[in-house]
Amino acid sequence: MKYGASGFPIKPVSEEIKKVADLGFDYFELSMDPPEGHWTKIFDLKNQIMTTLEDAGMPVICHLPCFVYTPDLTPAIRQASLDEMKHSLDAAARINAHKAVLHPGYITGMGIFAMDAAKKYAHTALTAIVAHARDLNIQLCFENMFPSYHLYFEPESFEDLFKEFPGLKMTLDAGHANIGDPEQTRLGQFVTRFAPYIGHVHISDNFGKKDDHMAVGKGNIDFESLVLSLKQAGYDDTITFEVFSANTDDLVKSRERIEFLFSNA
Predict the structure, then answer these.
(1) pLDDT for 123-163, tens place per residue?
(2) Under a CB-based contact definition with an 8 Å cutoff, are residues 84 and 65 in contact?
(3) Under a CB-based contact definition with an 8 Å cutoff, are residues 42 and 94 in contact?
(4) How are beta strands 198-203 and 238-241 bridged, if at all?
(5) Residues 6+ apart with CB under 8 A from 166
(6) Under a CB-based contact definition with an 8 Å cutoff, are residues 47 and 75 in contact?
(7) Cis amide bond preceding 35, omega within 30
(8) Structure letter (DSSP) for residue 157
(9) Three-state SS for 47?
(10) What is the C-alpha to C-alpha distance for residues 175 and 242, in angstroms, rounded to an integer?
(11) Global pTM?
(12) Which pairs count as long-range contacts for 107-116, CB under 8 Å and 24+ apart, including other chains?
């Protein structure tokens, strides 16, 4: 298993790489949101970023921009969002990222009242992004979200996805799966139904209300069951800790807890 941590895109990328390396993680997950993670910055600072990664002995996984709107009803916004995704993939390839995380498009505004059109636009964008990632030899890992996204938060919505896009993998986000699921069955269903397609995992905790990104054990997610099901499924790939705490001990202790659970599952 490889354990990584996300950087905070408000801070310079090289500083975040060094912080994650100093905490003993195996790789760095680069959040490609502005101001510091934007693809223009990655292009400009490519040599510096590559040197920092090499000095730290760390590979990089890229998380494509979160705050773009590929299903928007406005054509110019859809096109700008798609362009951001493609440019971000180009930047990821420049720094030798072989895996990238993709959020489904966020349906907002009038799109909520025109769901069929918004979903069609989201699918059109996904098709283009998958093709661009394939051309760049980047493994795309599509992330499950939560109900307010209106897309790809239930296991059923993934049913035909991997048939249509055979090279696509899944980013299983434990925190997202827990939101709006009082019975706490959704996370287990994702592993049971899509284990062969899981290519990346995000770990953080919450109480099922919002995406708190808390340390493991601070919320109500049953990580013992999650780890057991992943281990039984033979998962042995990348796990990123998205624990957004000012105290880095929370990040390290979260990793240590998950390592312990895998060792004893």
Answers:
(1) 999 999 999 999 999 999 999 999 999 999 999 999 999 99
(2) yes
(3) yes
(4) parallel
(5) none
(6) no
(7) yes
(8) G
(9) helix
(10) 9
(11) 0.97
(12) 107/71, 107/149, 107/150, 107/151, 108/69, 108/72, 109/72, 109/73, 110/73, 111/71, 111/72, 111/73, 112/150, 114/73, 115/150
